[in-house]
């Protein structure tokens, strides 16, 4: 399985201090397995459709697909309570779907139409929903880490028991403001979970070529922030790490780092031919560690779902995505007057 | 319905490519995510993945075909239950269907049809009336700023101040004096020396609905944080389609102080005024400092509030009112006159005011406009004055290229050209980094003599 092939997380000093280590993958109930399957499949199918629409010219600019990493947002979402916030960078479609933003709204934003979540003015990298506590969607690598720390600051200021889920990649983990934020978050005991989605490549540069310390769970050591390495391809492992981290934050212990060891199947963006890694590497991840196939295998093995039942979920998901794509292709462009709205209040 | 598989684009600029290889054959079953073909352009080779599940009924464009147009049908997929032969025939007869399907709405057409509409104009209220008999209290700019923050923090529990040395040290320039004692460390937050980080934390807190006042020890250090100010604070409202903005004030001393040399001496008024989504305020008097800082804290947008170290200790009359709030975006006529208009703001006003006294001795009656707000800029007040005096001089301390004065000169020449009796003269700091030596520093800044010479030039004296 996914974890077996990887190096077991070394016990770091910070882990020693906090007594934290990677928890065992959660035992999912049938309902949880089915929900995880459905949510991950929605992201997978949505992203495949987005890739297709990009290829057809409906989606412009940059388009970063989340295919392969679905277990990370899906497992973390299962650990949240109402009011917990999420913020991430530009590979954000999966996060939005996990936070239950409307697939139509997301897809129509990708095509730049008036029914898009940002009324066509944000695009793939910039979508938000105050109602669903999703704070973007940010195009500047690392900027969301300070912002997510600010969300946690607001939680602490209001003493509301909520936690900020601040996602960033292995690439962003080398930005300076990340460490400025770590320092303040630890100093002020802010309830923030720093989720480092380590998909092994910062665009085309592998972690070993960009990072002096490739164990990202150790990146908080100078700030007394504990960290855990998590098998980010196993939604159950993500969920149990999420439970542990949210409990840690809600307990007033300050921030925590979860390094999600994951993998993106597609290029960095649509226009990336991914020459920096071998086809065999990608194929191995897909065939041996796919997060959706793992759930599917368990569901079948435990006889929690028949082939027909799984097909029915597939069809339901496919219909949602088809409807979103249909809407996104046919919705009107923003009215020209929208050029001048939402600049200042 | 059989599904057409189209030639994908690798980027929005790609028009055609080569279909180098098929990895599936006719009759093969495919599922979503399967790599079915490889395409290449002069820049890259990419795999084509199936998006749907079915049987590859017909390959329309054979491997090795060059110059395949984007969106041309390259294969046909029969979905479950369909006859693959029929599915292939249904579409497969027109292999040359190469014209691009033009999926995006015709942008060129709409461009031609609809010229870009002008920005809508919003009305800004005039200053509130100060009732006759209101007591005027001589107050330093420093005290006025502190009073504004204290009043707003009493009024709204979501307002807090953060920055370096704002709490226990009582402010590097003593602007936050006494706030920690009154409001406690939860709302008066000392930060580490980490501008980029705490600016972002402030913006994040603002996006979550708090109303932070972020103090920069000086605006020179805000360059470490300028990405968060511009990319996060200023643009989020627009990028979110109006769902989420950042009600935040970034404040601190701006511009040249005294003898602190190049890295600590520059005016950011023009820089920030460039950015849609920001408001930029730069007061001169203590009354404006107080009334406008209160307005900035209440404003739902990010506001850059540019103060000046040299002005902090200067005293002005401030009306003693319970809630003295001034409108952002409205210039103030500092002194009425008829012969020439002098526009300035912030510390630039000190040159204008001194020059005006001397000009009066020469028989020149100058009108002085204090902009107070740099963005949105109150052109109505400037144009009305120019229509009366027919002459304009702008004074500021910032660098000359792309200065606030340049922008005003450009707008006045477009909106009131026929009313000008002389070219607009802009006075700015010299186009050099600020030197340290006392004599050179003096030369680098504008001076009263330059203002007088400019006024004499535009009035042909």
UniProtKB/TrEMBL annotation, chain B:
CDD domains reported for this sequence: lipoyl_domain (cd06849), TPP_PYR_E1-PDHc-beta_like (cd07036)
Regions of compositional bias (Low complexity) in chain numbering: 98-125
SMART domains: Transket_pyr
Family matches, as SUPFAM superfamilies: Single hybrid motif (SSF51230), Thiamin diphosphate-binding fold (THDP-binding) (SSF52518), TK C-terminal domain-like (SSF52922)
Region (Disordered): 95-131
Ranges where the Lipoyl-binding domain occurs: 2-78
Cofactor requirement: (R)-lipoate; thiamine diphosphate
EC number: 1.2.4.1
Annotated keywords: Lipoyl, Oxidoreductase, Pyruvate, Thiamine pyrophosphate
Pfam family for this entry, one: Biotin_lipoyl
Organism superkingdom: Bacteria
Subunit structure: Heterodimer of an alpha and a beta chain.
Role, per record: The pyruvate dehydrogenase complex catalyzes the overall conversion of pyruvate to acetyl-CoA and CO2. The pyruvate dehydrogenase complex catalyzes the overall conversion of pyruvate to acetyl-CoA and CO(2). It contains multiple copies of three enzymatic components: pyruvate dehydrogenase (E1), dihydrolipoamide acetyltransferase (E2) and lipoamide dehydrogenase (E3).
Name of the protein this chain belongs to: Pyruvate dehydrogenase E1 component subunit beta
Organism: Mesorhizobium intechi
